[in-house]
Structure formats: C-alpha cells, structure tokens
Amino acid sequence: MKIKKFLNNREIRVKLIVTMVLLLLLILSFFFTSKIENFLGLKVNYYNNEVSKNEIEKSNFKVCYLDVGQGNATYVKLPDGKTMLIDGGNIPYSKKVIDKLKSENITKIDYLIATHADSDHIGTLPSVIDEFEVENIYRPFQIAGTGTNAEEFVVYEDEDLASVYEILQDKYNGNSKISRVTSNIYKDFITKIYNEKFEENGNLRNSNVTVFYDGLKISGDNYYFEFFSPLVRDDNVNLSDYTNTIGFATKGYGTDSSNDCSAIMLLSVFNEKFLFTGDASFSSGSDGVQNYEETDFINSLSNNEIEKFKNISVYLVGHHGSKYSSSNELLDIITPKFNVVSVSEDNNFGHPSNEVLEKLYNRRKGNDYLLMTKDLGNISFGLYEGNLVYDLENREVSRNKVINWYTLSIMVYLFFIFFIFSIRFNKGNKDIDNDSKVNKT
Fold first, then answer.
1. Burial status of residue 25 (CB atoms within 10 A of its CB: 0-12, 13-18, 19 or more)
2. Most buried pick, 71, 88, 288, 306, via CB within 10 A?
3. pLDDT digits (tens, 9 = 90+) for 295-332
C-alpha cells in the first residue's frame, strides 16, 4: 500500500519520469562518446597511441626522449643496431642518462651529437664519454676559451679549432661572429672529445670528431640522418685543412647567440621522420629585422628539401617551447603528428610558452599531439604492428589526469537526480497546505 501511495503522488511520478528520460539520454550518449569528448575537449590528454614497454621493445628502432628536467637528451637505437645519443641534459642527470644507456645494454655509442654548447644540453656528456666508448662525435662550431670579450679571449689549450678561430678573427678584424664559450662544462667537453678513443679490430683509435654543417649525412639500412643547419660560412673553410676536426666552419650570429649554433637535424627511419632543432630561434624578441638560425634554415631549403620536412612524425619542440622558436613558417611546413616538449615543472623560463602551445594545438592531428616529459617521464617511440606508437614512463600519472565522458556524464546525472528530488513543485506545496487546512477544520 505504501508503494502504491508513493507512486500515486503526482510529484513523485513526474520526478521518476524525468529521471528515466535522463537515464535514457545518458545511455544513448555513450554511443557518441568520441564525438562528445572531441566537442568538449575532454580527450586532449588521452594517449591513444600508447603501448606497453614490451611492445616497444619489439620495434626494430627506438627514439627515446629522456626526462632530464629543463634540458634535452635523446637516445636512438637504429635499425642496424647502431646507437646514437643526442645531447644529455644538465650534470645532475648524469647517472640517469648513464643508467638508461646501460639498461639498453650499450657498451659503445656509435654517434654522439652535442647540438650546442649550453649546459642543459651537454652537461652529462663528459660523464657519458668517461663511461662508454664513443666512435663518432659531432660538435658545434663554437670555440672554447676564457675572456669576457674578443680582445681578452684566449682559446682553450685543448681546443682543436684554435687556428681556424685566429684565421677568421684576423680576416674580419675581430668581427667574425664566431660563438665564444667560456663555461667550464664546455671546456671539459672539448677536452674529453679530443682524448676519447674506441676499439676497432683490437686497436685503440681516436674518436672521429666532426663539426656538423648543412649537408652532412649519416646513413644506414632503412635510415638516414641529415643535418640542415647551421649553414656553412661564405668563407667555405674546410676544417680538415687546418685541424684534426672534420667538417666546415659554420655561420655565426655573434658571441651571445649560442642557441643559434644549434644542429637542425632530420632522422628518417623507415617511413617515420623525427625533427630536432636544438635551441635555434627565429627571433630575439627585439625588432625582428635580423634573421636568426631557424629563419635562415627555412630560407635555405630547396623545393626537394621542403618535401622531406612535410608531415613530420615527431617534432622535439625547439628550445623547450620558447616563444622565440617554432615559428608559424616552420610549423606550416612540418605539420607534426606528435610534439614532444622536454621541460621541467615550474621552470624559470615559462617554457613551454602559451604562444607555442596555441600554435601546436591549432595544427593538431590527434588528441595526443602534445607529450611533455615533465608529466610523462621518458617517452619512447617505435613501430608496433606497422604503426608509430610510444611508451610512457609515467603511465599511471598520465591516466589519472584524464576525465572521460563516461565519468563526467555519470557525475552530472547523479547531480541532476539529487537536484530533482531535493526540490518540491509549487503545486505540490499548495496541495499540502490545503490538506493541512482541511485537517485542522
């Protein structure tokens, strides 16, 4: 009788009908989950191409962006089994980088690339060189020494490029625009690379040291690695004519422009392309009249080269997401599928900048277009069942940040149910008042 009386109450019946209608709409919405999530922007942090570590290990190549805080370090395992390390991050990450390489069963590094002299890129490399044999080392055309200006600058005794520096300084009356670096970590790096040896056929040989330049290539089975910047200086100085270093003197942008000595490189492996631009910039934030390295690089590309840069698979976002890198002109050419930002939480530079994040968002090709080491830890790319996929070190951390439509819709539904049953209709209130008056009389 109580249930019948309960259901005979008009207000209760209306509330139950509204509840059932909302439940039906909720269930129907599940058939359109993907479209609703895309419309509401709920899937921005979904990791649709993520696989397990075991599945990544089945890939015949790997590109792993290491979480080294506010710095860059990338380990590459190539299809022919050769290994590459691009930068290494700051000194405090030395153990992490070395441990990662050891976990990959590496005893020798075939290619070591220091994109430029800043400590957040090369800080760990002296320790890495101490720990592993290195066969080929690629360095920037930046001169190690001491002194606050050109007149007081003294080239470091272990700097193999001293004679070239003096020749160009004399030729341009001290205005050669060669980057001079006085940091101790860069001097330590220079000492290490010119004293490094590797074993070949039972004999120890000096490592091959090369200054990278536009046109330099590394190739093997199913891959090639090509440098497109810095550009060779107009002098066309062949370093081998004066030094033990291979390569050419490259264009400089002044002593204070270490970032614009960065290597801009393209790794093509099978049908996937990975772009590295170091800290190259397109602007200094001033009047914008002068072209910087990123702009010069773009302007130097032939039509055939531009084709190589279309539809990049993974772009290591330039200069950790600085607003002075990743120009619209560059992003319009490369239109990357995935963007990796190597950055630390709450860094002092505000990286990545909102301007760059907006540019990347406007060109996104999927919901997982943006991957940041500060959130996800090491990010490893490889092929699985013919598709480019990745493994995230901090998998559970990333998943906990996702709100999907199932969760959100049920929360909203329960809220409405609570709201509906917590209010009373006006008519119902009047009926109760009338009933009270009848009872009193």
1. exposed
2. 88
3. 999 999 999 999 999 999 999 999 999 999 999 999 99
